[in-house]
């Protein structure tokens, strides 16, 4: 790691930012004619290489933008937060990360604190807007106070705001189709509580893909955690499932743990599909087959929609739906032969 006393090496910064040394020089000297995105790449390269920014490069923030996320234990939320914060920084805004913890501040309390600090806008990620049992009036009141906001993961038709969502129904469908193509005929679903919009939509996709009345008996509703996945895995294995689709990657890891606890091998005896493709999930044992949530595209779109609202563009109750992608790895295979 270099220190603030180490002379800046234009060659290193240019290579890291993938720009010319002349461009780096223009940024360092505060010259005009450099696109905002390019300038951000150069500053990011300096940060990654451990260079301290010269005082003249320290710019005034355009404002604070709150980012509310439900937790940090599920790696998909830090993944979203990182891309959102990078996008906001690229536009000159200072992100303020607010994480809910058991016994800590509620979403409403965090919003109140952000408003007290004069935030320019708020990004809600898998918040109360995704809970069909929660009162949406809180967001109507927030809008009436003139605070722009955007919602990720969880559409609510009673809230007048831009929504960014993956196609959860398609995600469940493609997971089931993948297992069916491998030869699985008894496929289960481990999902979170269906009061949450993403869970309800995945369940809809699953029931549409699994014909017959047996689909309901192959759905296990639990918590979006490793422990929840373990409990669901036990129940679904008891019902003879050879393939299990999960509502999150941590749940999938819980299912794998449940299978191994009873001496079953993954994927030789049971196949498991996760959801999210969160960081490091490709390095599990076995590497997890999962449905990738397009985090970067969704996060970038969310920031773009928020900044349009900040700029005065009228906000519409619109849901932007992004297509997920099946990533096949080592946790799925044909079912064992029955003798």
Main sheet characteristics: 6 strands, parallel
Average pLDDT: 90
Element-by-element helix/strand order: HHHEHEHEHEEHEHEHEHEEHEE
The portion of residues assigned to helices is 25-40%
Count of DSSP-assigned helices: 11
Quick one: how many beta strands? 12
Low-pLDDT ranges: 1-5
Proportion of residues in β-strands: 15-25%
Could you name the key traits of this structure?
12 strands; 339 residues; single chain; 11 helices; alpha/beta; disordered N terminus; six-stranded parallel beta sheet
Explain what you see.
The chain is of the alpha/beta class. It is built from eleven helices and twelve strands. The chain has helices spanning 10-17, 21-28, 36-49, 76-90, 107-116, 137-144, 168-182, 197-209, 226-238, 249-261, 295-310, and strands at residues 64-69, 94-99, 121-125, 149-152, 163-166, 187-191, 219-221, 243-246, 271-276, 289-292, 319-322, 325-327. The strands form two sheets. It has a six-stranded parallel sheet with strand order 2-1-3-4-5-11, sandwiched between helices. A six-stranded mixed sheet has the order 7-6-8-9-10-12, with helices on both faces. α1 packs across α2 (21-28), α4 crosses α11 and α7 (168-182) runs parallel beside α8. Residues 1-5 have low confidence and may be disordered.
In short:
By secondary structure, the protein is of the alpha/beta class. It is built from eleven helices and twelve strands. Helix 4 links the parallel strand 1 and strand 2.
Note the topology.
Blueprint: H1 10-17, H2 21-28, H3 36-49, E1 64-69, H4 76-90, E2 94-99, H5 107-116, E3 121-125, H6 137-144, E4 149-152, E5 163-166, H7 168-182, E6 187-191, H8 197-209, E7 219-221, H9 226-238, E8 243-246, H10 249-261, E9 271-276, E10 289-292, H11 295-310, E11 319-322, E12 325-327
Parallel strand pairs: 1-2, 1-3, 3-4, 4-5, 5-11, 6-7, 6-8, 8-9, 9-10
Antiparallel strand pairs: 10-12
């Amino acid at each position: 790691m270099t220190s603030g006393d180490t002379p800046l090496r234009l060659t290193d910064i240019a290579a890291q930012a993938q720009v010319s040394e002349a461009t780096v020089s223009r940024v360092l000297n505060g010259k005009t004619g450099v696109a905002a995105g390019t300038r951000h790449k150069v500053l990011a390269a300096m940060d990654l290489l451990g260079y301290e920014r010269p005082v003249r490069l320290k710019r005034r923030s355009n404002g604070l933008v709150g980012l509310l996320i439900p937790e940090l234990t599920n790696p998909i939320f830090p993944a979203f937060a990182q891309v959102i914060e990078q996008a906001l920084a690229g536009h000159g805004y200072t992100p303020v990360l607010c994480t809910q913890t058991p016994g800590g501040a509620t979403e409403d309390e965090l919003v109140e604190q952000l408003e007290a600090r004069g935030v320019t806008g708020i990004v809600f990620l898998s918040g109360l807007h995704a809970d069909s049992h929660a009162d949406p009036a809180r967001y109507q009141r927030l809008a009436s106070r003139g605070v722009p906001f955007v919602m990720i993961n969880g559409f609510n038709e009673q809230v007048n705001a831009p929504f960014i969502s993956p196609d959860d129904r398609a995600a469940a469908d493609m997971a089931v189709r993948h297992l069916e193509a491998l030869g699985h005929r008894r496929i289960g679903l481990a999902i979170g509580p269906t009061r949450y919009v993403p869970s309800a939509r995945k369940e809809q996709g699953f029931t549409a893909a699994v014909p017959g009345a047996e689909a309901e008996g192959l759905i296990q509703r639990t918590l979006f955690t490793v422990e929840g996945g373990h409990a669901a895995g036990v129940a679904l294995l008891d019902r003879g499932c050879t393939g299990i689709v999960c509502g999150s990657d941590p749940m999938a890891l819980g299912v794998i743990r449940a299978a191994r606890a009873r001496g079953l091998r993954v994927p030789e005896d049971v196949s498991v599909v996760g959801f999210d493709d969160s960081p490091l999930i490709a390095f599990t044992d076995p590497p997890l087959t999962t449905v990738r949530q397009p985090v970067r595209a969704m996060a970038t779109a969310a920031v773009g929609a928020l900044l349009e609202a900040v700029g005065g563009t009228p906000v519409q109750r619109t849901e932007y739906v992004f297509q997920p992608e099946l990533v096949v790895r080592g946790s799925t295979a044909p079912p064992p032969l029955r003798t």
